[in-house]
# Entry
Amino acid sequence: MIITRSIRLGVGIAALAVVATACGGGEEARNVSSSAENGNLIVGIKFDQPGLGLRNPDGSFSGFDVEVAKYVAGQLGVSEDNIEFKESPSAQRETLIQNGEVDYIVATYSITDTRKEKVGFAGPYFVAGQSLLVANGNTDITGPDSLSGGKKLCSVTGSTPAQNIADEYPGVQLQPFDTYSACVEALRNGAVDAVTTDDIILAGYAAQYPGELKVVGEPFTTENYGIGLSKDDTEGRNKINDAIEEMVSSGAWKTAFEETVGPSGYPLPAPPTVDRY
# Structure
């Protein structure tokens, strides 16, 4: 009887442990400074955004976000060889930070009050604006006000652009996908009429398919891209802010932009001012 009860108790504890793990129990957000002192960093980026965060066929990574991530790591004392890049889809970014799966995220991550309730932000390191991508021959769509009449607009689940459309243009037929690359493929095969996200992201896709796609209209939002990290990691946030300011003042920010985003034709903007909230 004693043995039976012990076995049952052990099984019960194991079951509770499984439930806790499934619910995020036992997982803690990482501390940027501690990880850097250990000599390694896990950094979240996008894998499918040309010019910003792209996994290349040879397994390497390229783009402006990647260069920002590497510069920040260097300022923290970690070489790029000791960075593990982890794919960070829009809808998973807060979870990846809260569960301790990444040290920080550089993935066209707009700073919003809602997100700041869950995670911390350094930056901004770039300021973009939401726009529209359409087929090159499309003359009907010129901005968000021209999306009525049954036109299908694609954006990404969990993204700021998708929420902006839902809030400001409720009559638009929004088609949410998991990634922007999937949205772009839907646009190319005629399944949707337009894709919406930030202009700098769309410029990369337009450059990837020259003569096939184009960005239309003026930006209709302001998106401050921040580097996401644990909400309570004030020391890490300050160090990343220092790194961003150093990247701008040294000229490395401009060089990184010109080498990654510049070929798309997207003009060099004024550098951002870090917000040390």
